[in-house]
Write a structure and sequence with these properties.
mainly beta, eight-stranded antiparallel β-sheet, seven-stranded antiparallel β-sheet, 3 helices
């Protein structure tokens, strides 16, 4: 028996060994490709440009509007690898929009590492992702992942926020709070901020405009306070939609609602960022 094996070994040339090696490699690749464990993973993606972690890299409106629920990415065989479930966007300065979309991915799952990958790249919160959905190429960062067993709709709730416009002006070399009167004249009680689905996410429910205090020092050193003839202090009450994540309320999915934080409001005629003073439940109006 041993002699027969030696004869077979001697008869095989280098080409035969190379052929056997390549064949084993192909069979191994096909086994991994067809028998690898796949899993559906639903992720939420924040669309960005270039560097996914770059602040202020929101896409232009035409890119956000080109993405639709039902948009798909397919592989070379025509199999669907990704499908958009929903899209939501919020207008910001200029032609930019804050845009999130939820997409169902077919991923490769590694149970030993409990890790999903898509197109050879790890899929996890904070990881960059690239998608080509019905001819629309998008770059973004994953903000949430949910397997089929974990999918839940994050409920939103209403908060009442008291806020103040505190833009500053210079007087005798010092900064003092107050805004030009054309700013409060550019919006009204009842003005609304809506997302791309038409849902109201913020509303002005009251506005109080008063002359700003003007603090100045006279030539003899006296500190006097009088009302500024042009600058205004604006107190607002706002109804806003928030989502609670790990005990913190977020506006626009990413802005924490905390006293002292600025709250960007993209109203029909103007964008303002009042500073939050108090926060209460909507039922306590």
């Amino acid at each position: 028996m041993t002699g027969n094996l030696k004869k077979i070994y001697l008869l095989l040339s280098l080409k035969h060994y190379l052929f056997i090696f390549i064949l084993c490699g192909i069979l191994g690749f096909l086994f991994i490709f067809f028998f690898r464990e796949t899993s559906n993973l639903t992720v939420t993606v924040y669309i960005t440009e270039q560097n996914p972690l770059q602040i202020g890299s929101n896409p232009p409106y035409w890119l956000a509007e080109a993405l639709k629920a039902g948009s798909k990415e397919k592989d070379a065989s025509g199999k669907v690898k990704a499908e958009v479930v929903s899209v939501i966007s919020y207008p910001v300065e200029g032609d930019r929009r804050i845009t999130f979309f939820t997409v169902k991915l077919e991923t490769v799952f590694n149970p030993k590492q409990n890790q999903h990958s898509f197109k050879g790249r790890s899929v996890a919160v904070g990881s960059p992702i690239e998608l080509s959905l019905d001819g629309v190429f998008l770059e973004g960062v994953v903000t949430q992942t949910q397997s089929e067993q974990e999918i839940q709709v994050s409920p939103s709730s209403e908060k009442i926020v008291s806020a103040k416009l505190l833009y500053e002006f210079q007087q005798q070399g010092t900064s003092q709070p107050g805004v030009d009167d054309w700013i409060p004249n550019s919006f009204s009680v009842g003005d609304e901020m809506k997302d791309s689905t038409g849902k109201i996410i913020a509303q002005v429910i009251s506005k109080n405009v008063q002359p700003a205090d003007l603090v100045f020092t006279t030539n003899d050193g006296q500190v006097l306070v009088k009302k500024h003839p042009f600058k205004k202090v604006v107190d607002l009450r706002l109804k806003v939609q928030v989502k609670n994540v790990a005990g913190t309320d977020y506006f626009l999915d990413s802005i924490p609602i905390r006293v002292g934080n600025d709250l960007p409001l993209f109203l029909p005629q103007i964008t303002i960022s009042p500073t939050i003073m108090t926060i209460s439940e909507a039922g306590g109006i």
